[in-house]
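TASK: fixed-backbone design
INPUT:
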């Protein structure tokens, strides 16, 4: 039987966290390059912003990698303090919603209310 010590588990979690941060940095570089260039964010600064975003997401019970990625994307799209926007705050404070439900609602508001569909038949 193999026994994993707390120290080994912490080391594994640290490696996994670094992997997630690296993947998210690459994702942001690919999908948010204008914002990154505008603010002059290098990879070290991006990592710091991601770490703060992860901590803030956790405060709202947004925990999975996918949901945290979406949360961090909102920070890059709408600004570092997007949680205080009037359409965001009530959703994030809704304790009866899961992290996935919160992000789904923010996506719906962002997509269907803030960016209304253009009539393409004109």
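OUTPUT:
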């Amino acid at each position: 039987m193999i026994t994993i010590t707390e120290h080994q588990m912490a080391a594994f979690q640290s490696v996994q966290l670094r992997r997630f941060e690296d993947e998210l940095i690459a994702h942001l570089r690919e999908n948010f390059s204008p914002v990154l260039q505008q603010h002059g964010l290098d990879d070290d600064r991006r990592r710091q912003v991601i770490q703060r975003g992860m901590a803030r997401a956790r405060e709202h019970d947004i925990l999975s990698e996918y949901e945290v990625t979406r949360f961090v994307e909102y920070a890059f799209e709408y600004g570092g303090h997007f949680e205080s926007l009037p359409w965001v705050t009530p959703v994030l404070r809704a304790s009866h919603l899961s992290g996935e439900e919160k992000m789904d609602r923010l996506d719906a508001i962002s997509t269907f209310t803030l960016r209304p569909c253009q009539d393409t038949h004109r």
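COMMENT: Helices lie at 6-31, 33-39, 43-59, 65-78, 89-93, 99-114.
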